[in-house]
């Protein structure tokens, strides 16, 4: 049989054939080297595992912190929503109060205008009453003057004859010849003079006074 170069049993230079040529010490050294390498790999894996566990714990802690922060944010959000509702209610109350104040102000202005109109009407009424009072005063003054002239007597009458419609004779209390009667006439004359002065200041003379004066002149 011829030698086959590809046959491992006949090729002494192949790696498989070289394994049979190693010494036990060489195998032990290679084994130790492999063990040390594997030990380093195991240490690296342990370190990586420790690092990963630490990172995992950090992530868990951060997640818990994030959850707590989320709860705090939600609580603050709820508190802000509650405050927003309170502010909305307060704003609505303020708007309602402002509208009521505007309405009250409008009602007050309306009442003010009504009162001003009533005051003007009352002023007109008071003016008319004052004119009527002045007219009546002048009429009373004219009547009092005519009455005094009649009480003074005509030239054909006697001094001691009582006047018609008078229950007082001469010499009686309040009569024409008594001191009291003279005082009464003086008082009436003074009152008439004062009323005439007042009429002169106002410049108003009633129709009754004119009629009485024309009757006296007649």
TrEMBL record:
Residues 168-180 have a biased composition (Gly residues). It comes from the Eukaryota. Residues 193-202 have a biased composition (Low complexity). Residues 1-14 have a biased composition (Polar residues). Residues 1-23, 147-218 are annotated as: Disordered. This is Uncharacterized protein. It comes from Elsinoe australis.
């Amino acid at each position: 049989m011829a030698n086959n170069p590809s046959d491992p049993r006949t090729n002494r230079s192949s790696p498989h054939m070289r394994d049979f040529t190693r010494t036990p010490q060489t195998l032990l050294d290679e084994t130790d080297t492999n063990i040390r390498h594997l030990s380093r790999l195991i240490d690296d894996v342990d370190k990586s595992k420790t690092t990963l566990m630490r990172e995992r714990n950090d992530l868990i802690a951060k997640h818990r912190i994030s959850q707590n922060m989320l709860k705090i944010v939600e609580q603050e959000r709820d508190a802000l929503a509650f405050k927003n509702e309170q502010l909305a209610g307060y704003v609505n109350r303020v708007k309602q109060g402002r509208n009521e104040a505007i309405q009250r102000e409008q009602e007050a202005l309306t009442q003010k205008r009504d009162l001003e109109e009533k005051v003007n009407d009352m002023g007109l009424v008071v003016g008319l009453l004052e004119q009527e009072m002045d007219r009546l005063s002048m009429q009373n003054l004219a009547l009092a003057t005519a009455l005094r002239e009649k009480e003074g007597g005509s030239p054909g009458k006697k001094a001691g004859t009582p006047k018609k419609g008078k229950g007082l004779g001469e010499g009686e209390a309040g009569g024409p010849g008594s001191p009291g009667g003279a005082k009464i006439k003086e008082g009436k004359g003074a009152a008439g003079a004062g009323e005439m002065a007042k009429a002169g200041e106002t410049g108003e003379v009633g129709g009754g006074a004119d009629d009485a004066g024309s009757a006296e002149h007649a």
